[in-house]
From TrEMBL:
It comes from the Bacteria. Residues 7-64, 71-130 form the CBS domain. InterPro entries: CBS_dom, CBS_dom_sf, CBS_domain-containing. The keyword Repeat applies. Keywords: CBS domain, Repeat. PANTHER family: CBS DOMAIN-CONTAINING PROTEIN CBSX2, CHLOROPLASTIC (PTHR48108), CBS DOMAIN-CONTAINING PROTEIN YHCV (PTHR48108:SF34). It holds the Pfam family CBS. The keyword Repeat applies. This is Hypoxic response protein 1.
Amino acid sequence: MQVQDVMTPNFRVIPYTASMGEAATLMRDEDVGFLPVTNENQVVGILTDRDITVRGLAAGFPPETAVSEVMSPGVDFQYADADPQAAAQLMEERQVRRLVVLDQSNRCVGVVSLGDISVGSGNPVLGGATLERISEDSPASSVSGEPNPAA
């Protein structure tokens, strides 16, 4: 089994110039809390509903503020042909619950969540154990240090 077997292939992205209000509307309409942020088809960051709420609105930014002002820069990712266990391990290390999925050409082809791994891998223990370790207190990095993937 590979990450591509459990990932969500149909996902939406948002341009870095879009507003927080536009992002919130898209999240509501698509029933998601996570959007890859793009600049000229390159994924340059991640935007979560928490970013909009905490970094944006609670910090006093108006809804018209560009998502680039409140997004998490950088991208945590896993390759589509990787084992779901490797994705779970990376989620633990980075303390994130979602990863962008890339093909071997570094093109963004999906998103994999902790829930996708837990349900899709047939190993709910993996998901529970990973969630427990993700939730532990420790410094987390949101930048992978790898090349910027194309969307």
